[in-house]
Amino acid sequence: MESFNVTYKDLNAQHETETDKRIKLEAEIATDEAALEQDKVVFIEKEKELQAMQHAFNEMLQLLRTKENEKNLAAQRLDHLKEREAGLQDFLQKAEGQQQGIEESIAFTGSQLEEEGNNLEGMNEQLMQLRNEMDAKRVVMDEKRIALDALRSGYQQVQRNQFEAEKKVVIADTSIQNLSRAVQQIDDDKVQRDNQRKHLADDLHLRERELNIKRTDLDQLQKHQDYTKDQILQTQGLLETLRTKLAEESRKLDSKKNEHDLLKSLIDSMEGYPDSVKFLHNNQGWNHTAPILSDIIYVKEEYRTAVENVLEPYLSYYVVNNLQEGLQAVHLLDEHKKGKANFFLLDKIQNRDFQDQKDLEGNENYKLEGLIPALSVIDVDDKYKKLAEHLLENVFVAENEEALQNSNGFVVIEKSGRYVKGKYFLTGGSVGLFEGKKIGRAKNLEKLQEEILSQNAVVELLKEEIQERHNEVIAFNEELRESTLKNTEIEIQELTNQVFSLHNKLENLHALQSQSQHRQEELQSQIQQTQNSVEATRNDLKWLSEELVVQAARLSEGEDVFKNEEGFYNESNRQYNEFNLLVTRQQSKIAALKQELDFKNNQLSELRQQIENNTTQLSDSRQQIEQCIEQLEQVEEELFNMLKGKEDEERKLNEADQAYYNFRNELSEKESLLRHKAKDKEQVEHLLAEIKDKLNDVKLQLAGMKERLHVEFRIQLEDILDEARINEMTVDELQEKTDRMKKRLENLGEVNPTAIEAFTEMKKRYEFILEQKNDLVSAKESLLQTIQEVEATANQKFLETFHLVREHFLRVFKSLFTEDDQCDLILENPENLAETGIDVIAKPKGKRPSSLTQLSGGERTLTATALLFAIYLIKPAPFCILDEVDAPLDDANVGKFTNMIREFSGNSQFIIVTHNKMTMSAVDVIYGVTMQEPGVSRLVPVDFRSLS
């Protein structure tokens, strides 16, 4: 009852303390939140000021770039003028040499002209002699020509008749030529329209290229946007990973702290030690700070169980300085009847004789192969080193069982603690779960403190890295360019509209080209009619041509005689003409020399004029160079002043930017501190809930005790609260009985302090696996049920679709054939709809084919078309493309096919590739593909919808 009262009182006091702490934290959180809201308002104002300064700085940068462009233009103009000046100087230097060369050439040409004139006078005299000879021969030839003219008159009569016929033919040909010119005019118009289309196409190409550039810009912006978002997502993912790692490291830290607290509580409460040791530990009537042997020795983890098996009888021994301290403790235990305790006398151990040890060291077998001295695996202060040597000087650790064969009287322990061998004994067996947990508790506590400090540093580093990643996410969010992206999309829309307009203009020109093509075909038809009408006249012309051949034979005889005389005359004429040609060439040579002389005089005059003009331009260029230099110096001075102003503004902007980010970091730190306080508040609330639960447990235990007293002993708790304890046994007898019971408990072994945690963990593991199993079983059942539902739905939909396709197939097939023709669709395996095949049956009237291959090509085509449109009617598509479907069909079936297309075109637009004229005549728009030049094809559309 006293324990219950103390516990209840402590819990109430702790509950009040934590309640006050929670109220204090709530007040601090409210105050910090109010201050944080005010800081956020100030932060927003600073952000607006920073944006305004950034905008002004950007305007200054734009003006600076403008001045730099002006400077670059002035420098380029100056370079151009200097190049022009150098070119003019070079020209003037070359022009002096050219002028001298032309003057020398003029003098040489004048002397050559005088020489050729003298040669021409001699050639004129020879020409007059040749002309007299030619005139004599011409008289003889004229006599022969009169006789030839008589023959020629008859020939000419026939020739006139032929001419009349030819005239009629020529008139017809002229008409044909006029029509051809009209066709040529159409071709010229086509060329002109092609030029227009080319210009439009170029413009379209320019617009499309601009559109592609804008789209590329948009893609780059979107990629930058996506890249920034990816960076945000990656950083957020890394942030989540760091937070997970922080949680994991925090759990490790909490685990270390819990282990530290548990170990500290075990050390403080002296758990696992006799009551005598606990009594002396808490009694200040002697040197109660004297250590226990288990607290002064630290053993490496892998050897801890083995060493504890050897030192187990001595672990609860106190280490005192001398015999007086030990006797003082013994007297205290005897006075209070607290049992017995054991002591190591440190002064005696430090002064003991080590002669036996030295003898052992002199023995060659003192160091055993395959064994590790126990003293090498422990860590002990120098003060207690002699004690450790006393206890473990003859103890060795073995890695395997082979070392047991030659131990030479030493104590050998197995590394994992499975056996201990002395000179005349061997102890061993299985290793207990809690062996090795007792030795070195104090040292382990120090190690845990160091590990906690190290783990705490890891947690703090992770928190700092998480804050850095959070700042990166904020920076990436500021890089998103939503407004630029929208403006680019608007520009792309405008360019798309322009491209669409150019496409419409090109289509209109394409239509005009089609109309010209029709007109050209009509003119070709008229040309053909004219050629047919002149065919009779061409036959008369043929007869006259034959008659003309007869007359020509007669004329040929007279012409032979005339040709002999004419040959003599022609020979004389040839000689005259050849010499006349020489005279003419001489005259031409003289004229060329005169022309060359005039040209060189003109060239000399022009060169002098150019020299004068270039001299003037050179003077102007030098004046412009001086003006450009002055303008460039002025622009450079303005640019220098603007650069100085830019540096000042940039420095101010950087200072404002730095202040903004410093304030933002301070704000983030305040938010982090506020979150920590909120977390502390949650922990306090959680602790309050635990305290309430403990209070309720105490109340329940008290109620249970009351109920047990009432049920088992028929005693009311209220009746015995004020009564004194009544017992026949003395206190010593009760103490002795208690000691016996505790000794029995100690013989049973230590209590596992982590058994409840292990049981809770295994229970959670079991419940988790059981829950997973139940989820898998329920998921399997749900999945099987879903599969059945899907199969049932699919079979139902398949049957419904199949029956609809079958009905449409019957209707379309009879519309393509006749009402007496038979067709059907039959399922091969109705029991298994998932794997069943479908038989297509088609039996035209008068045929009984056993398979579709026995039908003709046209019948198979119509059957396939009927099945295709039966499926199409289930869900008509907006567009259907048919590629030469009508190729195997005759004219009658083509008519049925086009009628069906016309019927279904109310819901869909059909695009048909065909060579059939009947199909072409039934369409609304026809697109012909032609090739104006090899390798280049184009479309020629004809729209019949505008015709009645």
Question: Please, could you describe this protein's structure?
Answer:
The chain is α/β, with parallel strands linked by helices and 948 residues long. The chain has 17 helices and 15 strands. α1 (2-269) packs across α9, α1 packs across α10 (482-533) and α14 crosses α15. The longest helix is centred in the first third of the chain and has 268 residues, at 2-269. Residues 354-366 have low confidence and may be disordered.
Mean pLDDT: 79
End-to-end distance: 115 Å
| Biggest sheet strand line-up | 4-6-7-8-9
Biggest sheet overview:
5 strands, mixed
Low-confidence runs: 354-366
Structural class: alpha/beta
Q: What is the tally of helical segments?
A: 17
Question: What is the total tally of β strands?
Answer: 15
Evaluate the radius of gyration.
Answer: 61 Å
**Level of helix content?**
over 70%
Portion of residues in beta strands equals 5-15%
Global shape? elongated
